[in-house]
Amino acid sequence: MTAPAVSVSTIGKNALSTATQPLPLTDLVLESLAITKRGVDELLIESEFAQKLARAEKTGTPLRIKLGLDPTAPDLHLGHTVVLNKLRQLQNLGHQVIFLIGDFTSMIGDPSGRNITRPPLTKEQIEANAMTYFGQASLVLDAARTEIRYNSEWSDPLGARGMIELASRYTVARMMERDDFTKRYKSGTPISVHEFLYPLMQGYDSVALKSDLELGGTDQKFNLLVGRELQKDYGQEPQCILTMPLLEGLDGVDKMSKSKNNYIGITEAPAMMFGKLMSISDTMMWRYFELLSFRSLEDIAALKVTVAGGANPRDAKVALAQEIVTRFHSAQAATEALADFVNRSKGGIPDDVPEITLAGAPMGVSHLLKAAGLCASTSEAMRMVDQGGVRIDGAVVTDKAIKVEAGTVVLQVGKRKFARVTLTA
Q1: Is residue 114 a contact partner of residue 180, using CB atoms and an 8 Å limit?
Q2: What is the distance between the alpha carbons of residues 409 and 252, in angstroms, rounded to a whole number?
Q3: Which of 174, 239, 384, 413 suits a disulfide with 374, CB 3.0-4.6 Å?
């Protein structure tokens, strides 16, 4: 394999030759290290990264810091921003951030955390999702200082010969050290050969980009380590790896995911975003502060003391919700979202209620809720009535058999779903 991307850089050679002569850690380096470590799960290997920071300060050459995201879905949520926030912090420290879109690896499908084979995306799906990825990530990153790359740049030219040569650099035994592969093998769940290629190709990305540090979630640790080992094999200075915790979703149990419907999208309407943040538990609120807030650790600690001393935790949650809505929308939007939330809490109707016209009066309430898009099915609608979660013009519905006559009514399901429906015969 002779692709230019895998040649050893001058910086890499110098670093390898001076590895036995540690550089002193200045106050600036120690401060940068502290910022890097805030909220992380692991930084491997910390002493190596400290030396990388010291070298960058001495030479004036920024570190190359890589984050790869496969465009498996078109929208980003707050869970994605945990690692994006860290990337922005490193960007603010003056380092070169590389936002890598895994258009090639998406065609393989990341097996991380999976107990079944993950179906690969089509080329058309990948292109459609990738179109929105960086635009949304730019709500966190400084787009002007971000290098955007696609791993098809170096993966496509490999060809069959290059792929075989790359595969020869890693053993099946090493690959089976991966926890999810081991569990699937022991349980008799099929593992496709192409899944072994995913960590290899992600690792090869680090070789091609000459990465100094790669970021990822805790579920990516194996893949990040493969990149480190491949860099050694290609004669490069190995990257350090930084893993960030996986943010739990609104349920406080599973990691935030669109498939589990426990997510907060970063492009959601301000009122919806604010309401979802207010719905998290008082305990989970501190986890969100730690991983999402830009407040200092001292400020967060002071808030905890205030709440522990008897202050209403709702006030702290409001502060968090306003900070997040301001970041992704504006301060005015956050203020309006708070007012909307207070209005809803008092049983009021928000200003932005969608208006729908339906025919078929008189119509049973369960069918009406489904037709208005407020419930996925009539059975869900009836369950919501049983739970006291349905209102018509502000009045709680207790009779599942009620029929709604022709006219205009405001329907409400739960705390956040509204629709103004004009029902005709």
Answers
A1: yes
A2: 35
A3: 413
